[in-house]
């Protein structure tokens, strides 16, 4: 993506700047990922699709048949924490610790997984968590 946007020495300079911000960590914090994409003026959704093409997630709200209209109405809103963790690709123990506030920071890949599991654009969730964006509406 950088090669499309920058050429020659400017490309190398931008790449060095990103490496300086991110470092050599295997897991990048969501805030850092969002800051880099904003600094580089890169589309977050496209950036996520490129960077996290390996990431495993599954949709939380799959098409299914319900016995009653009440069941169809309520079912999407009563998912267990374990189901959310599994669907978003976050290890269950880590997810629970994040929910309780024992761990403070999501990894960028986890924000991506949550967005995809809830059928949101990753940019919506990154903006909500790190850019003072509005809370995304799920299932509308």
Description:
56% of the residues lie in helices and 0% in strands. By secondary structure, the chain is mostly helical. It has one domain (27-130). The longest helix is centred in the N-terminal third of the chain and has 15 residues, at 8-22. It is elongated and about 60 Å long. The model has no long low-confidence stretch (mean pLDDT 83).
Whole-number total of structural domains: 1
Percent helix? 55-70%
> Which regions are unreliable across 5 or more consecutive residues at pLDDT < 50?
none
The Cα radius of gyration reads 17 Å
| Intertermini distance | 31 Å
* Structural class estimated from helices and strands: mainly alpha
- The oligomerization state is single chain
The percentage of residues in β strands lies in: under 5%
Q: Main sheet, how many strands, which sense, barrel?
A: none
Beta strand count: 0
Overall geometry comes to elongated
Average residue-wise pLDDT: 83
Q: Spell the H/E element sequence.
A: HHHHHHHHH
Put simply, the count of helices is 9
Structural topology:
Layout: H1 2-5, H2 8-22, H3 30-39, H4 44-51, H5 69-74, H6 81-88, H7 92-100, H8 108-117, H9 122-130
Helix pairs in contact: 3-8, 3-9, 6-8, 8-9
Task: Provide keyphrases for this structure.
single chain, 140 residues
Task: Put the structure in a nutshell.
This protein is mainly α. The protein has helices spanning 2-5, 8-22, 30-39, 44-51, 69-74, 81-88, 92-100, 108-117, 122-130. 56% of the residues lie in helices and 0% in strands.
């Amino acid at each position: 993506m950088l090669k499309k946007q920058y050429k020659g020495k400017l490309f190398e300079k931008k790449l060095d700047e990103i490496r300086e911000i991110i470092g050599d960590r295997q897991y990048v914090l969501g805030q850092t990922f969002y800051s880099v994409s904003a600094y580089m003026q890169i589309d977050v959704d496209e950036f996520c699709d490129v960077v996290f093409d390996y990431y495993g997630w599954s949709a939380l709200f799959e098409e299914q048949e319900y016995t009653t209209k009440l069941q169809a109405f309520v079912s999407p809103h009563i998912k267990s924490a374990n189901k959310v963790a599994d669907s978003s690709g976050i290890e269950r123990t880590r997810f629970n610790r994040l929910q309780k506030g024992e761990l403070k920071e999501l990894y960028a890949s986890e924000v991506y997984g949550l967005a995809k599991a809830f059928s949101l654009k990753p940019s919506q969730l990154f903006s909500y968590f790190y850019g003072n964006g509005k809370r995304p509406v799920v299932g509308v």
